[in-house]
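Entry 14. Structure prediction run on the chain below.
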Amino acid sequence: MAGKGLRFSPKQLRVLTWWRNPKWEAVICDGAVRSGKTFAMGLSFFLWAQAGFDGRQFGICGKTIASVRRNLLSELAPCLRRLGMEVRERRGENLLAVRFRGHENTFLLFGGRDESSAGLIQGSTLAGVLLDEAALMPRSFVEQAVARCSVAGSRLWFNCNPEGPQHWFYQEWILKAEERRALRLHFTMEDNPVLSERIRERYKRNCSGAFYRRFVLGEWTAAEGLVYDFFQADRDSAEVPEGGFSAWRISADYGTVNPASFGLWGLREGVWYRVSEFYYDSRKMGRQRTDAEYAGDLERLAGGREIQRVIVDPSAASFIEVLRRRGFRVVKADNDVADGLRVTADLLRTGQIVICRTCGDCLRELAQYAWEQRGERDVPRKKDDHAMDDMRYFAMNLAGDREEEGFLALAVERREVF
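Output returned:
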């Protein structure tokens, strides 16, 4: 494979060959972001499947099918073709048909977003399964995927970044790896041979707190304190820049009983500034507002500017419809909290989004937005988080734009690995 232009670290080479040892029935690759574990695992999975099976079904699972295609297959499928495999994707059926050296197998794609996802994989008979970002999937889905692997010689492949030490996957698989006959390989950024020292330093510089310990050091550590603990309002906020802006967007977290928060964002010289906001707490004001009233509030926040898009809480179906009838281009927000926090932190740290001092409610929530342990996971406390939610919606939407342009924020940046 070296002749094909691929370079591997010693740990990646172990991933490529672990399945030759009959002692192991599973492999677990966990650790830092950008550590090269995803690509090496995906390549190994296909080589193993095509070498040992013919006419079988396999599963490839991610949090969503879109994330499987983006994080794994976008890089892996071209590499498999260069190695001589015939790879045909049938997108409508969410599967790949792969032929190599006379063996043809089918790889089914599954998304494990929530508890209802377990039913999607139920009934399949698999010769092996790869779970990308296993710690982000519900336990019921992972266990159902494992249970589907009933073919003789089947094996399990897990890949994830760390969460908290009480997370079920850490407790049930990583701590019990030996008794489950699973080889655990812990990755750091140093295990990725093509990641430059400059890029490593950028990640270290742009992360702090739980983000640094989990995604740079690769530790399963509890989150504590403020979510955005690096942010200092007196240092990191700014006055509204003088002069014009080249584009405008609005992000909106909708609430009837809970507060509603809208942010007005302007683009100037490559930086998005939150220049103004609307915040309404019905409990404090003693009266709930209607969808039409909130739409009027958003129009006043827009102030006659040409708004590229309004990014709205995806659960606010009736409010979205009112906005569309008033002529706004509405985009449903990506409400993935875990990815959203990482992306927002990266954009704040690198100065790609800036909160102006005119946005007092956003700055107030930034100073209070803290972690708490809920069950087996560390999550942001559900209090004083409405401006935080609309800011997260904006950040995820912006990261999606930049992914299409070839730039990815911290949480999803993988395309430079190989």
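Confidence is low (pLDDT under 50) at residues 405-418.
Filed with the rest of this week's runs.
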